[in-house]
Every structure is written in C-alpha cells, then in structure tokens.
C-alpha cells in the first residue's frame, strides 16, 4: 500500500499551525547534558550528534526501549541504535550513557534523571531532543517531573515538508501532530505534565483535523 507523502492542500494550514505550536523555538546554548528521547525518528540521534560536535554539552544520554512503531526499525532498542549512530559519527563512546527501559516520555525523564544521579553527573541544565512535534509535550513533562532543571528543546531542523518526506507518510505525521496536541491538555489534567497554553487558533486547527479523521493517535 502506497503511503501519501504530501500534505493535502485542504489541511495544510491546520497542519502548519500545529507544527509551529509544538516547536518551542528555544535558542540553543551550552548545557550540562544532552538527552535524546527515543522514537521512530533517527533525526533525534542526528541532532544530538551535531550538537555534541558543536560543544553544546559534554555528556549525552539516549533513552528508550522499544514500541510497536519502532521495534522493526530499531530491533535492539531505540537508545542502542541512537548510540550506534552517534559513535559512528564521531561521538566518543565514553561520552554517551544509554537508558534502555523507558517506554514513554515520563519514563524517559525519570529514568534518565536516575541514571545521571547514579553516574554522579551534576545536571542543572539539559538540551532535550525529540521529534519536532514532541517538543512541547516533552518540555511540559520534564518540567513536571524534574522542575529544578533548566530545559531547552531541540529537534533535527527540517521543514514540515522535508520532515514528511523523511518519514515517508504524511498521514502518520498528521495523526501524530493531532495526538500530541490532544495530550498537551490531557496529560496536564492527569498530572503527567505542567499545563501549557493552547491558543484558540491551535484548538480550531486541531478540531478540524479530528473532523477530517486524523485520529489514529488520539487517546480514546
């Protein structure tokens, strides 16, 4: 079955609205630790490697086990494959820690924090690297579970269209954007994350995309 690789023109404005909302637009600056959150997106390992070479942090952690959406692509686990990519591209192996048990963003943060404490890595600031549309949720989760740390969010710097091309499935990307938008309020209500403002235009774009049946990643 051929997957659509172009965002439908009827929904482009709404998709762009959500895409921009989830980007925290943080200015990158040196921090104590870089943290790469596991997913299906190898772009996390790419930006983590790039920022290490730019001396944005001296220590890098990759965190992630496997999920149904990643086990085929990363059979040895997300963090393991990310580490292999980074080492192959010049990051010293002894600069990388891996956390291989986390299966959601909350566990990514909790388990990474414990791992850094175990290795006595003083951590007052982190660059948290994720899929582009995961930035806001990752930030809100980190500030809930690790409130004292200074958090900067980053992703592999691709345009929306280039990101869709890299994933190879426009519907999947839109579904994920819609799902992460729902989770901003839902996870705050459940106590998993701090609340985030959701502007009216974002709420309207989200509602239209739900009506257009981009719902596979919604929490039922």
Descriptive overview:
This protein is of the alpha/beta class and 220 residues long. The chain has two domains: 9-21 and 159-211, no CATH class; 27-154, HUPs (Rossmann fold, 3-Layer(aba) Sandwich). It is 45% helix and 11% strand. It has helices spanning 12-22, 43-53, 78-88, 105-118, 135-145, 160-167, 170-189, 200-211, and strands spanning 33-37, 59-63, 96-99, 125-129, 150-154. The protein has a five-stranded parallel beta sheet with strand order 3-2-1-4-5, sandwiched between helices. Helix 7 crosses helix 8. The longest helix has 20 residues, at 170-189. The protein is globular and about 50 Å long.
Write the layout of secondary structure elements.
Blueprint: H1 12-22, E1 33-37, H2 43-53, E2 59-63, H3 78-88, E3 96-99, H4 105-118, E4 125-129, H5 135-145, E5 150-154, H6 160-167, H7 170-189, H8 200-211
Parallel strand pairs: 1-2, 1-4, 2-3, 4-5
Pfam family, one: DUF218
Domain DUF218: 46-154
InterPro entries: Cell_Envelope_Assoc, DUF218, Rossmann-like_a/b/a_fold
Distance between the termini: 26 Å
Sheet with most strands: strand arrangement: 3-2-1-4-5
Tell me the CATH architecture of the largest domain: 3-Layer(aba) Sandwich
Give the count of helical stretches: 8
| Counted beta strands | 5
The profile of the biggest β sheet is: 5 strands, parallel
User: Can you tell me the CATH class of the largest domain?
Assistant: Alpha Beta
Strand content: 5-15%
InterPro entries: Cell_Envelope_Assoc, DUF218, Rossmann-like_a/b/a_fold
Domain DUF218: 46-154
Pfam families: DUF218 (PF02698)
